[in-house]
Amino acid sequence: MDSWVRVLILLGCLFPVLVQCRVRHYKFNVVMKNTTRLCSTKSIVTVNGKFPGPTIYAREDDTVLIKVVNHVKYNVSIHWHGIRQLRTGWADGPAYITQCPIQPGQSYVYNFTITGQRGTLLWHAHILWLRATLHGALVILPKLGVPYPFPKPNHERVIILGEWWKSDTEAVINEALKSGLAPNVSDAHTINGHPGPVPNCSSTDGFILDVEPGKTYLLRLINAALNEELFFKIAGHRMTIVEVDATYVKPFKTDTIVIAPGQTTNAILTTDRAVGKYMVAASPFMDTPVVAVDNLTATATLHYSGTLSSSLTTFTRPPAQNATPVANNFTNSLRSLNSNKYPAKVPQKVDHSLFFTVGLGINPCPTCKATNGSRVVAAVNNVTFVMPTIALLQAHFFNIKGVFTTDFPGNPPFAFNYTGSPPANLGTTNGTKLYRLPYNATVQVVLQDTGIIAPENHPIHLHGFNFFVVGRGLGNFNPKTDPKTFNLVDPVERNTIGVPSGGWVAIRFLADNPGVWFMHCHLEVHTTWGLKMAFLVDNGKGPNEVLLPPPKDLPKC
Ligand code: C2O
Q1: Which residues form the signal peptide (predicted)?
Q2: How far is the CA of 252 from the centre of ligand 1 (A)?
Q3: 303 lines ligand 1 (CB under 6 A)
Q4: Quick one: 359 exposed, middle or buried, by C-beta within 10 A (0-12, 13-18, 19+)?
């Protein structure tokens, strides 16, 4: 090969140019940056000084190397949310689960290959509450020459929804942990980093989505908020949903999208309305009245080229905060594409049938004055997960004893009316417990919300796998009758699923990825409180069925 050709290919791979190349290199400098939002300035943790952070572009089958250099005072780790990480758990990112964090002044190269996936995902910090500002899009294009299973849109746009606090988010959660109470809700929602005009700060810095009339746009929508599920709407336009969590779905039209933290949605927007400005809105979805949320709507503008600057913006009213039917309508429309090219490989038989309660609890806290000596906690099957001080994957690989146990219960320790009146004792037990699975086991987990303190919608995320959402219902799961209603043909496949408030969901997956895989509520406050556990998947027998050894630069604790 001519050397200049090689230089061109190398340059193409260094920059997010979408040429064919197998290996893509990115450099993430984690640095502080002064940023003004809501008319006040604060210093935030960013990647390369950007908020939201840079987009990672890759194609299916590419190997991606991201060198993360930590220039801030916090320990840092980054998670590539939804990437399967087949045999490369070392690159998954959750601090103290698959790696020790990258300490100030240190670096780590995340090295993984994207296999069997294409679509929109996100990356985010996976330690403390740093993901509030440390997040960005991960766009995986199909292999070169492989079309989308829908007409190719003219253009693509990334849209990241977030939450903004005026004060430092680490101070917000530290304050809450000291008091035993819930942390302050955010001060605004954001669309691509901008809240749009809000009361007391009308600086018109809403995000502008510039479009040309008569075109189609693939909107790659990401919810990077910490604690809130969101509705997303564009005035006067319906969108066609074609993908969620980087899996194709049967296309359907909607005027409202509901999206939980950690979830992604690809929607096609056709700019077929009169030239003008149309309001884009992101507003909270919360159907438990006692749980406080930030009730401000973030607004952006869909701006057709050729619009007169004097023209008024077409307004849209966001759904009510408690619009459960609107959310259900969207959720119930999601079906796997299940085509010949993209079949839904739903496990038809189940080796491990698990029943996990997810919810809150109350434990003693002698130093918590505001609550008279108790604190709010969260648990799965009444176990409040205790973070280890050595990464679990390391402890597993190097056989370090005393870091975790493998006795995570497959059922709640005692049965009660989960969605009815709470039991007398709201206390939980503490532990670093894992549930162990043989390689290639088929697993069903029924996730049952509890009404302890309050029923709530919990977006549960599983690392290392996609799962099929085979069933969903209100009240307590009935093991006799509910499985008869399961969809084992074309259920939606994803990595994060909302357990409905006061209800349950059933998911199935194939444990074909050896390693330690975190499962937790993607509402950061609930993760902090302990709504998390992990699966330990053993190696298989074949040479391609074992966890690879850790890279040399794996951070030390
Ligand atoms: Cu997106 Cu463990 O998280």
Answers
A1: 1-21
A2: 27
A3: no
A4: buried
User: How is residue 25 written in tokens?
Assistant: 């290199």
For the CA of 527, the nearest atom of ligand 1 = 2
Amino acid at the residue 335: R
> Is 518 near ligand 1, meaning CB less than 6 Å away?
yes
Q: pLDDT tens digits, residue range 396-424? A: 999 999 999 999 999 999 999 999 988 99
Q: Ligand 1 pocket, 526 CB below 6 A?
A: no
Q: Rounded to two decimals, what is the model's pTM?
A: 0.96
* Closest atom, ligand 1, to C-alpha of 94: 2
Question: Do 372 and 226 reside in the same domain of the chain?
Answer: no
Query: 133-158 pLDDT, tens per residue?
Result: 999 999 999 999 999 999 999 999 99
- Whether residue 380 lies inside any domain: the answer is yes
Phi-psi region of 259 (alpha: psi -120 to 50; beta: other; left: phi over 0): beta
Same domain for 301 and 179: yes
Are residues 186 and 109 located together in one domain of the fold? no
- Report the distance separating Cα 160 and Cα 225, nearest Å: 9
- Cα of 114 vs centre of ligand 1, distance in Å, is 17
Instruction: Report d(CA 225, CA 196) in Å as an integer.
Output: 16
Which atom from ligand 1 is nearest to the alpha carbon of 463?
Answer: 2
459 lines ligand 1 (CB under 6 A): no
